[in-house]
Amino acid sequence: MTVIDTDPGIDDAIGILLAFASPNFTIAGITTVAGNIGIETTTRNASRLLAFAGREDIPVVRGAAAPLSRVGPEPLNLHGTDGIGGVALPHPVRLPDDRQAVKWLADFLMEQPAGIVDVLALGPLTNLARLVLEQPEAARRIGRIIAMGGAIHEHGNVGPRSEFNLWADPEAAAVVVASGLPLVLIPLDVTRRVRATREFVEALSASGKPMPAKVANLIESYFEGEANRESRPLHDPCVMLYALSPQLFRIEELRLSVDTGNGELAGALTISPEGTPVQVALGVDGPAALDLLARHLTTIEASASRRESSTS
Predict the structure, then answer these.
(1) pTM higher than 0.70 for the full model?
(2) Which end of the chain is flanked by fewer CB atoms within 10 Å, N or C?
(3) Which residues form the Inosine/uridine-preferring nucleoside hydrolase domain (predicted)?
């Protein structure tokens, strides 16, 4: 059973639609967090993705609007003013759950057998950190967290050694890493090896099915320009791809700590004997990962997708 914690986000949206398309995921809920863009937009985008996929049975729960103890980042321009590159999606059908994400997560985890709920974390780790701090008994019932975040040997994307999700709330990342909860980290070292080609996008579009066609639109908005033959890295879908096929990834256990300073290394990961053991993906079979993404999108019929005439 899976909960997706997310700040959609173009690549978040691709990962979420992959999870909808695959029978391997039983999605219990989507919790939102501010990150790529503000909380109102990330929550609305999550609800719009559910409306497109005809999955209004899944609750969306509004989460943290700001980091634990610092000012939140400015919205990322590469995701557009709507957070998803201007790709058309229907209006939300179902209102978000009345509870806040931490309360909903705690209630849900306490209702389930310990260890059966995985959290796929695609954005800053604020909601999970608050769960650890405020509801530790519930947090200990999580089976594992698979989180996109960090950079180990790669240069960062918001600083010399800092990746956006951890940089956006370093204190939250430090809480989650130090918690000792089962954690698999998918850093830039892996996600930069998973990029779509123009031919890949064309193949998705040619499938004639709504779900892969929409993912093709999202990936198309993730190319930097017409001349580029490869997209920006498909960061967040790598979380779902790892959950589906961990054998495609090379995992090492590293002892990590998170820099919580205010300088250019905020959110940076350090390997040291004093760090907490974390399972970290350091390699991936990129072509096989893309093939897995395409197979799950094109071999499963999308359920009750909305017609384009109903999109906003």
Answers:
(1) yes
(2) C
(3) 3-289
Catalytic residue among 79, 91, 153, 235, which? 235
* AA identity, residue 97: D
Helix (H) or strand (E) holding 28: strand 27-32
Residue located via tokens 């760090």: 275
Into how many domains does the chain fold? Answer: 1
Q: Is 91 a catalytic residue?
A: no
Tell me the pLDDT of the chain (312 aa) as tens digits.
999 999 998 999 999 999 999 999 999 999 999 998 999 999 999 999 999 999 999 999 999 999 999 987 776 666 566 768 778 899 999 899 989 999 999 999 999 999 999 999 999 999 999 999 999 999 999 999 999 999 999 999 999 999 999 999 999 999 999 999 999 999 999 999 999 999 999 999 998 899 999 999 999 988 877 777 889 999 999 999 999 999 999 999 999 999 999 999 999 999 999 999 999 999 999 999 999 999 999 885 443 333 333 333
Enumerate the β-bridge partners of residue 227.
none
159 token code pair: 């600083």
- The CATH number for 305's domain is 3.90.245.10
